[in-house]
Each structure stands twice: as C-alpha cells, then as structure tokens.
Amino acid sequence: MAEVILQNLSKTFGGVAVVDGINLHVQDGELLVLVGPSGCGKTTTLRMIAGLDEPTAGEIHVGGRSVRHLAPKDRHVAMVFQHFALYPHLDVARNLAFGLKLRRVPRAKIEVRVRDAARTLGIEHLLQRRPAELSGGERQRVALGRAIVQDPQVFLFDEPLSNLDARWRESLRMDLVGLQRQLGTTTIHVTHDQREAMMLGQRLAVMNAGRIQQVGPPLKVYHAPANRFVAEFIGSPPMNFLPGRMQIVDDTPTLECPPLRLKLPLQYSPPLQSWSGREVTLGIRPEDVRTARMDGENWDALPAEVLLCQPLGAETILRVRCGGQELTARVAADRNHRPGEMLNLFLDLAKSHLFDPLSGQTVLSFRR
Predict the structure, then answer these.
(1) What is the residue-averaged pLDDT of the chain?
(2) 4-233 has which fold?
(3) Domain locations in the chain?
(4) What is the pLDDT of residue 121?
(5) Where do the H-state alpha helices sit in 214-327?
(6) Is the peptide bond before 259 cis (omega within 30 degrees of 0)?
(7) Which of 139, 262, 293, 332 has its CA 20 to 30 A from that of 75?
(8) CATH code for residues 240-365
(9) What does the pLDDT look like over 103-132, one tens digit per residue?
C-alpha cells in the first residue's frame, strides 16, 4: 500500500490546460473517487499517475518517492481501463498470467497469484474459458484480476463499470467496495457518474475544467458543496436554484425573488449582514421541496403548478412552476399529481444554500 501525492500537476495539449495545477493527497489504503463531467481532465490525471501521459508540470509521488520520470512498469501501479482489453485467443488463466510472464515472474509464483486472484473475485470456475464465453460482468472481473495479480501499491480504475448494463453495474459496484476493503490497496477510481461516486468513495475529489473543485467525504460534499458547480453536479435530480436579492428585514435574512419572499433561518442573520442588498442565488435540493405542510419557522407555503409527474416506484419526482421559476421536488411514492394541478410547496430553508452569482462560490450552507 502507498499514499499518492499530486503537487501542482498540469497537462497542456495545444496550449489548452486539460489539467490545471491540481493538488491531491490520496491516503494510504484509501478508495478515492475522482468524479466530474466528460472532458474535465480526470482520465488524463489518472494516465499521468500511471505514466502513460507525461505531465507538463508538477510532481507525482507514490509511496513516498517521485515517480514522474519512471517508466509505467516501475511505478508499482496497476490500471484497469474502461474497455476490458482481454486477449481473445487466451483463456482466463492465461489472460491473468500474461503480464506476469512478460515480467519474467517465476511460474510457481504466477500460478499462486492467479489462483488467489481468481478465488478473491469468484472466477475460479472460469479459468479455462475464453473471453467470448464470458458475460460483460465476468470479463470485467477478469480485467480486475489482471490488476490484482500484479500486487501493486496502487489501483487506478478508469471508469471500469461504464460499459456494463445496469444490473451488472450495480452488482460490481458493491463487489469493488468489498474487494478494496479486503485487499486494503490504495485505489483511485475515475467516473463521471455521481451516483457511483457517492456509493464507492471514502472521499470524493470533484473535478471540473481541469481543476479540483472540492475534496471530502461523500455526504460532506453533498450537504456542504464548495460552490455551485459541485452543488449542481453531485445529486440526482440536481439542486434547484433561485436567483434573488438578500435583505435583512426586522433582523431576519430574507431573499427577495419576486413574486416570492423567502425568510431564511434567523440565526444566520449576522453572517448575512454584509450581503444585504446584494444579489445571491439560493440552492435547495429536491428532497427539501415538499408538498405537505410541516411546522417550523423556516417553512413558507408557496402556490405551484404541476408540470410533470414521474412515479419511480420508491419515490415520485415532480416538476413544478412556482413564482415564474421551475423547481424539482422529490416526494413520497404515493403522491400522484396531474399536470396542471395546483398545490402548495413547502421549502425547508434550514437545509438550503446560498451562492455568489458572480464567482459561484458558496456564501453559506445552512445544513452542515
């Protein structure tokens, strides 16, 4: 096992900074998920750690030593790609052993590692089969096995589940978590799927436009986003946003979003004094937009028109128009509403967030 440290790491293609001076410390034995939209630089970051791309600037340390100028084979990392890349003419056992044979590992040691990896992944019964005889999930297990037999200090996973159908993807997510805990190997997992990131990561590193936006435990990132991008990207359906002007009325912070007037939690009046008279953006998650009356000073009833009702079995997603703004609400499964129906919304403002509309940075997260 080993920690991974990235210091001011950058990669430029044709004058464009794909990775722009990122700093990241992945702890020994940690499963960290690097998550962000397509093209944000996360795969390039992984490839630089693996030695497949040369950094334009910055340092990469694995296990306490700089590896920037080392060949990929000397970095003690193993990478699993989005595509399985198995040799079709070799059976599973020989696919697992192939990299070890190239490194001239003794045959007896290869057999032990292949057997141990197959047992760990539950693919012992597949060792004599060829890739064409395997399902997508089984092929991905073999790809993981090829990384495991190398006994690396660090696993690098580049969207290894994205090519699987939904059933296999859900199953392998849980398997990956169990495997990482069992082996205790430092792991960096790249994905664009924020749900997958929340399920897998001990910590998330949210990336956008070549820069890391926030690093932290999944629930911390979810409940206290560093900026509007993180708030909107992490969470499905995404957070609702209401532009308005902050006013302090009778010592109560109030957001004026004509025709809406939203009273915010009284205890946050002192830190919001400096924002009085200024434009802000309120963010509130769909689960905090409800259609049932609740007691509490931070609740305001708002008339709304139902635009769309999506029953999902365990819950229902509503799209409504309220005061000229469209909002998404996550409500109980038995709440069936028709388009055009009028109802009252209740916003739990004690769980809302305020963002600077110019910088996008978080002004205040009421729920911390």
Answers:
(1) 90
(2) Rossmann fold (3.40.50)
(3) 4-233, 240-365
(4) 84
(5) 218-223, 228-233, 269-272
(6) yes
(7) 139
(8) 2.40.50.140
(9) 888 999 999 999 988 988 889 999 999 999
